[in-house]
Amino acid sequence: MSDVQQGPDWWLASDGKWYPQTSKADYRPPSPPQPPAPPSPPAPPPVGWQVQQPQDWPGYAADFVKPAGVSTTFSGWLQAAFWLSAAFYAALAFASIAAVSGIGSLTGSASQYKAWADANNTLYGFRVAGIYLSIPVLVLLVIWCFQTHKAASSLEPGERRWSRGWAIGGWFIPVAGYVIPLQVFLETERIATAQRWNGRVNADWHRTGSVERSGWGWWCLYFLSVALIFFGLSLSNLANASVEQARAGYIVTFIGSTVGCLSCLAAISYFRMLTERLSPAGLANRA
Questions:
Q1: Is residue 234 situated within a structural domain?
Q2: 215 lies in which domain range?
Q3: Using CA of residue 137, residue 138, residue 139, residue 141, what is the dihedral sign?
Q4: Is the pTM of this model over 0.85?
Q5: Domains in the chain: how many in total?
């Protein structure tokens, strides 16, 4: 108590003294302050997106990063290159038929000889064009092989037999370059088609993943077509080649061109399948 008021909450009693608020008989202490409400949990990340959370951040913080995938635009360019290659093989097949027809009707007249010579020169013009066409197609294939390998790795398959370096370097090893890129493609295909759980492939992706016939079919058909075309053009271009040898060379070139066209169509189907599985939209499919 006090003879003077010590604060705004002091009260004056009948004895003329000032008393604090706590001395009243009906005084009730104020309730303790309520603890702050816990922060609401963050919204779950979109399906198929990776969540990165630095370990030294207090609380929960998420940074949504879109998973890397195969570029559908680049895949479209690759498919367009193989459509162009299919058209090239088709034109080469028609040129081979024209050469067979020209040499079959060759009787010694100047006009018939000129028609056959023009058809023969057209064939070898296609050979030069094929070399120039194969260069950009090879570049696109190497880049696409690297992209698919990288996209498949985002599914966390664990240890792989063919590392990312093989996806590029394997193309340029003599002799082995005919086999290693195919093995990289097939391993990537098994990962892309394997069963997934929560956006990741199962540990047994070697068994659950599948390999379509178009995967190894287009590769084998392509090299078969190259061998047939090379042999056919070489046979018909011998210095002392007879009419029968030249005709046989044209026929073999026609067969090789047909096989090459089928190879391109199978490759286009294969590229579409892998792009659907390994594009950003395909990686977002968690099942």
A1: yes
A2: 72-278
A3: positive
A4: no
A5: 1
Reduce the DSSP state of residue 18 to 3 states and report it.
Answer: strand
Count of positions (residues) in the chain = 287
Sign of the Cα pseudo-torsion (179, 146, 137, 169, in order): negative
Q: Give me 96's structure tokens.
A: 């081979």
Compute the distance between CA of residue 84 and CA of residue 133 in angstroms, rounded to an integer.
9
Token match 């026609």: residue?
A: 254
With a cut of 60, say whether residue 64 has pLDDT above it: no
39 to each of 34, 35, 36, 43, 253, how far by Cα in Å?
A: 15, 12, 9, 12, 73
The contacts of residue 17 (CB under 8 Å, 6+ apart) are 1, 2, 3
CA distances from 230 to 124, 185, 258, 263 (A): 11, 26, 14, 16
Q: Rounded to 5 degrees, what are φ and ψ at 161?
A: -70, -40
Looking at residue 60, its pLDDT comes to: 39
Work out the percent of the chain whose per-residue pLDDT is above 90.
35
Q: Which of 157, 237, 240, 169 is nearest to 205 (CA)?
A: 157
Q: Which amino acid is at 54?
A: P
For residue 65, the one-letter residue type is V
Residue 35: inside a domain, yes or no?
Answer: no
The one-letter amino acid code at 147 reads Q
Instruction: With respect to residue 26, please indicate whether it lies within any of the assigned structural domains.
Output: no
Is the sign of the CA dihedral 75, 76, 77, 78 positive or negative? positive
Which pLDDT score, from 0 to 100, does residue 26 have? 62
* Residue that is written with structure tokens 């492939």 in the block: 201
